[in-house]
Amino acid sequence: IRHLLSGADVDAGTANRILDTAAEMATVAGREVKKLPALRGRTVVNLFYEDSTRTRISFEAAAKRLSADVINFSAKGSSVTKGESLKDTALTLQAMGADAVVVRHPASGAPHRLAEWVDGSVVNAGDGTHEHPTQALLDAYTMRSRLGRLAGLSVAVVGDVLHSRVARSNVLLLSTLGAKVTLVGPPPLIPVDIVAALAPGTAVCYDLDAVLPQSDVVMMLRVQRERMNDSYFPSAREYARRYGLDGTRMRRLPEHAIVMHPGPMNRGMEITPEVADSPRSTIVEQVANGVSVRMAVLYLLLGGNNR
Ligand code: CP
Fold it and tell me: Ranges for the Aspartate/ornithine carbamoyltransferase carbamoyl-P binding domain (predicted)?
């Protein structure tokens, strides 16, 4: 593949190749010399129009561990504030020799437009409420390393599906890899028609307590109140009562089940500190795995035998 824009861009073979390569990359993190020369002479631009902690830093760490040159661009403090367009910004960065552009943008579809304008590879690091494919890949990696497989797993994705690019990319990728996804949350936050079009086998349930005993994985989503309007704006207490994962609910999961969250979390709303900090939680592990998975993605886009 030349670009990674959507969970739909990777078939099962490509996804497994990325996950296997990430497992090899993870061994680098444990070594005394953490750097590989694979992308020496290549330039990776991190183009961020929206705030990020995990994704931006892990792409930077991933590119540096592969010996690439890294340019970090944040829209704040750039000529974007003077009205420069995404296209002009992209062409400026290309003129500086970008081999890959990692882009986060508040507009759904922005990475797809970018891919039409630049010669290098484009990686979607989160576009609006649309997709976040490397998050789905690191989530799949985490499930596989904790539970040993993806095919046949029952994965409950819980909460604000409507606004979640993480949920969309996970639905696409997990379906490709043979997991069974159930979306759980209040009806106004589950866009049944959109999800059915994305992955027809996806189930929907509005009762979290009914789903937990059958789940191998429960993936809690951040309630994105900044993207909500007045038609549905739950109080933290009401939301937590119906759809929050607390210690009592966590104990209804099978013993082997894991709890995931892409971060950042609203502690006390969709997840309690007791759950977030419990041994079942993979939240910190997901962050660490993100570096290996993003190393694999950059390596396969820029340094593998695709180009
Ligand atoms: N999970 C995730 O995308 O986090 P950031 O917004 O901090 O990058």
Answer: 2-144
Which three-class secondary structure state does DSSP give residue 158? strand
Q: How far is CA 226 from CA 15, 155, 164, 223, in A?
A: 32, 26, 12, 9
Domains and CATH numbers, the chain: 7-130+287-303 (3.40.50.1370), 133-282 (3.40.50.1370)
> Which ipTM did the prediction report?
0.98
> Annotation-wise, does 82 bind a ligand?
yes
SS3 110: helix
At position 202, the amino acid (one-letter code) is T
Residuewise pLDDT in 10s, the chain (307 residues): 899 999 999 999 999 999 999 999 998 767 766 799 999 999 999 999 999 999 999 999 999 999 999 999 988 888 888 999 999 998 998 898 999 999 999 999 999 999 999 999 999 999 999 999 999 999 999 999 999 999 999 999 999 999 999 999 999 999 999 999 999 999 999 988 888 888 988 999 999 999 999 999 999 999 998 888 767 888 899 999 999 999 999 999 999 999 999 999 999 999 999 999 999 999 999 999 999 999 999 999 998 544 4
Is 263 one of the annotated binding-site residues? Answer: yes
